[in-house]
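step: validate -> pass
step: tokenize input -> pass
step: predict -> running
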Amino acid sequence: MNHNDHDDEENADVYIPPAPAFPDLKHAKVDHDRKHRPPGLKLSDTLIMMFAEIVLMVFYGLFVENETVPKPNFPDPGEEDLPGMLDLVQPFKRYPPGFDNFVGSPRSQERKTQEHYSSFIQIAFFIFLSLPWSFSFLRKFSYSSATFALFTACVSIQFGIIVMQLVDRVHCIFLENMLLNPDPDITPEKLAALNFTDFNYQCQVMRPQDEIEDGFGLRQVRQACYCRVWTEMSGNKTKTVLRPLVAAHALLVTGHRDFKPFSLSLSFMDIIDGMYSTVPTLISFGVMVGKMAPVQNVVLVFMNVLSYAFNYWVCIYVIGAFDGTGGSTITHTFGAFFGAACTAVATPKGAENDPDCCGRYQSDIFSLFGSLMIWAYYPSYNSFYAPSNAQQAVAINTYLALLGSSVSGLLASALFTGDIKLSIFDAQRSSIAGGVAIGSVANLTAEPWEAIVIGAVGGVACSWAGHYMRVFCVGRLKVHDTVGVMSMHGWPGLIGWIAGVIKLIPLNLDYITGDRKSKNLAYILPWENILQHQQGNGDAAIAQAVIAPMTIAIALVTGLVAGAVSKKVTHLDLELLFKDDTFFHVPDDFQKALDEDHIPDEMGDHDGHANGHANGHANGHANGDTKMIANGTKGGELAV
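step: predict -> pass
step: emit ->
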């Protein structure tokens, strides 16, 4: 036996302890907490969401039908169409250009269908790809941010398609009631001129257009006639054969696709209507990313879509306001304030101090890519409902506004940070704030410089709100906005509202009836199809001025209710927030790779995180990126 064999026998008798699984107790505690963390998705939550989806499926099966394509030709007059034709009146339903083109060639209709499909795809990219990616900046919540945003959008669109068609039907009921109880501002003289007898309008008499005083209230009464026609023809479809012209115009005015009282249609336009109702839902979702369970998001969807539809009906149909094609106020401002109110009630206290409520270098790049995709598709979103002779101008004005906000937002970022350095938060948010701000006036802005200025002001407002208003909201109001949608949608949306009021103030009677070739009337727009208030006495500006306070009030009240309801359904404990492994199976390197950035002390003190990330980028992403405010406790610092 040689010497080496003797040494091996001695070593075999010596106990060699295994290497520790973790380098220290901190890592061991983190692994223990991860393995013993309860799942964030409970069985009861899953069953509730499945039930909600089944209800939607049943509703679609019973009441939703595909629209017939190609559309039928506009009919020839029938036996009872003339005389007795109703007053022709503009629809209250919002349509994309060319929707009402009843032409004889199926090929022409096919071309229009392709145009709508192109817009459908671009808006789908805007909602399903761009927005979810822009939410995926959180260091341990990227799986959940993108997936739950997609989940929320899918549920919201299914519900929005239904609700936005019901809005038209509710408005018809409202208008039919006006035939018996007209607006008080309609004087007896006007009633007599339009054949009212004991407040009962004689709908069957067609008057010459030059004898009709086309005020907003009187136009609603004339629209109500077609709502009554639809009600009568849905009960007796023989009348659609005797009066086909009246029937076709009744469908166009009221937004119905047929005379089936319990049937809803499904077309590209209906889906896009659902998509537009989903945007405020995703905006509100951005406020609460990482702080709500999926079943709470479902509650958010139903409450948000219903509230948005109600606000849309009040502001656009009842008040008759003009909010452009991008909806700066009724979409962006509503979504931001609804989310802020909801998170004020539903979010656990202390969520803003969570060590994982921050970004990471790689995830910030993905989020920036999502913002850039929003930037690229924003003109398509803003221009879909623009009149055909202004659609190009709306897209161009949106691009110009985005250019202005991208430049001004970054320059403002360098000033607001205090050290002349840029913030990735501002790069991701202020670059698209111009598209929000121009939404109300994109088809009213005549000169290119106006679009650039509006976009630039929106970009500066976004950067300013991200650095200062977030401090106030978190420190004083205890409202934590994860993504920063108040700065990205809320304040730029108000800039768009103000721009809309300013642009509509000069619309006096001389302005509207003046030379249409003058530079004051851009794009030779058909004002009767754009503005619902056309009296030339400031009525359009007044209606526009009313909708922001109305929208904010509705958003705050309904948001508080939605937050309270979602908190009753379920809630997440503080230690479960902002973590993918609460809901997902994650790779083995998930904890190891991310814990290299931060390992908390055993006693749960977050001083190390707050101080370290306040000086770096990460915590600044979720909480504002530039300054420090204290909440009065050790380790209670918030980088904002």
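step: describe -> The mean pLDDT is 79.
step: cleanup -> pass
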